[in-house]
Write a structure and sequence with these properties.
Low-confidence stretches: 4-23
Strand content: 25-35%
Helix content: 25-40%
Radius of gyration: 20 Å
Structural class: alpha+beta
Length: 240
């Protein structure tokens, strides 16, 4: 009986080791794949960086932008489709992947990330200790990291845009921050937009720099999961 138990435990240990090895290998391939993609499409224009969207769209026509956050490994294409579920488990090559892709909310399909009053962008939290997807957004829980990296860069076919972070939030999945009704041409929405921006500022878990709501033309809301609570989200809001 003791030998059976020992053999059983050995088999379990070997299976666990093999599975762990597979996960590590999968992670390494993901990191290398993303770096290869960045090397292929990120171009230098003097001191400015740009994206070769023609080449990128040959890979996937759903690509609408590219996001980069200094001091992190977040350096990804952003895709947009009519179904949020698709890019939860498909990568930029449309292959099945636990890492998914960085994608805009389905309700904003066909809109322009650079002009939307609130573009919601999702990415998986694979752990802040990893270098893939949106896990490293959790670095912003530390005010000292925010002081080192306050800007987010969005690249589109129409130009490059610099956003500055105004709020770091831990919120419920149905929170007001996910308001896409702000993306209307209704002139009366301006007052609601200012209220929304102030709401985001007041909900921040760290002290971000002051800003003037009247000078804000658009915002991006970066959203990822919280390991501690399935119903909560970790959100970074930035404006330009």
């Amino acid at each position: 009986m003791k030998k059976f138990i020992l053999y059983f435990l050995l088999i379990i240990s070997l299976m666990t080791f093999a599975f762990s090895g597979y996960k590590v290998s999968d992670y390494v391939l993901e990191v290398k794949g993303q770096q290869k993609l960045a090397d292929e499409v990120v171009v230098e224009k003097g001191k400015e960086k740009g994206i070769n969207f023609k080449k990128l769209k040959k890979k996937n026509e759903d690509v609408v932008a590219w996001i980069k956050i200094p001091k992190t490994d977040i350096n990804y294409p952003i895709v947009q489709t009519k179904d949020n579920n698709y890019y939860l488990n498909h990568d930029i090559d449309r292959k099945n992947s636990i890492y998914g892709a960085i994608f805009m909310d389905e309700s904003e399909y066909g809109t322009d990330i650079a002009t939307n009053r609130n573009s919601i962008i999702y990415g998986h939290n694979m752990g802040h200790w990893t270098s893939v997807m949106f896990g490293q957004l959790h670095k912003y829980e530390d005010n000292s990291f925010y002081e080192k990296s306050k800007k987010i860069y969005i690249y589109t076919e129409n130009g490059n845009f610099e956003y500055r972070i105004i709020s770091i939030m831990k919120i419920n999945a149905g929170d007001l921050v996910y308001n896409v009704e702000l993306n209307t041409d209704d002139e009366y929405i301006d007052e609601d937009y200012a209220s929304w921006l102030n709401y985001c500022k007041d909900k921040s878990v760290i002290d971000c720099d002051e800003f003037d709501t009247e000078n804000v033309s658009s915002a991006i809301t970066l959203s990822t999961c919280m390991y501690s609570n399935d119903d909560q989200r970790f959100v970074v809001v930035a404006v330009r």
